[in-house]
Amino acid sequence: MQNQTNFFSLVFNFYILKKIVTLYILTLFVSCKTYELTPLGLKTQLENSSVEEKGVKLNNASIFFNSTYMAISLDSLQVYDKQGSVFYLQNSPSIEMRLINNEGEKFTMYFDTVVIKNDTLVGSRSRFISGIKHKIPFSTISKVFVQDGHKNFKYTN
């Protein structure tokens, strides 16, 4: 009888823990404020910035190394919230960007890796495998969204 009670106690505790973790994850997703900017606004801001090598501390328990990659030197990005108010989003390695093209396809990449080459927007989809990139003809981009993914990534230089 004692083993059966311990089993039910263990299952009940797992159930409670699962609910707590689910609520925590939902809170993280809800708390990420999304901003928008026009494709032309993005292009203008990217054209006024340069690319430089930056070191990034990834701060992840499963990863024991830091990364270095070419990143844009833009300090902040002028974006708009849902009410249309201007907001300056501080550039960091955790800023994520979602693009939607004219066909409705969605592309996600890290903002600080985005550059425009020959009217094609190129950006990295991964912090860990730098060769995985999206290449999107700039003329096909219809919407641009950015948000701070609240990942614990920091520039080291």
Task: Give the SSE layout.
Elements (H helix, E strand, L loop, with lengths): L1 H30 L2 E4 L1 H9 L3 E7 L9 E6 L3 E5 L5 E5 L4 E7 L4 E5 L4 E3 L2 E5 L8 E5 L3 E8 L5 E2 L2
Antiparallel strand pairs: 1-11, 2-3, 2-12, 4-5, 6-7, 6-11, 8-9, 9-10
In short:
This protein folds into 2 domains: 1-31; 34-155, no CATH class.
Provide structural commentary.
This protein has helices at residues 2-31, 39-47; strands at 34-37, 51-57, 67-72, 76-80, 86-90, 95-101, 106-110, 115-117, 120-124, 133-137, 141-148, 154-155. It is of the alpha+beta class and 157 residues long. It has two domains: 1-31; 34-155, no CATH class. A four-stranded antiparallel β-sheet has the order 1-11-6-7. A three-stranded antiparallel β-sheet has the order 3-2-12, with no helix packed on it. Strands 8-9-10 form a three-stranded antiparallel β-sheet.
**Total of domains:** 2
Q: Detail the poorly predicted runs.
A: none
What's the Cα radius of gyration? Answer: 20 Å
SSE class: alpha+beta
What is the average per-residue confidence, as pLDDT, rounded to a whole number?
77
- What's the number of extended β-strand segments? 12
What is the approximate shape? globular
Portion in strands: 35-45%
Largest sheet: 4 strands, antiparallel
| Main β-sheet, spatial strand arrangement | 1-11-6-7
- Would you list the SSEs in sequence order as H and E? HEHEEEEEEEEEEE
Helix content percent band: 10-25%
Instruction: Report how far apart the termini are.
Output: 61 Å
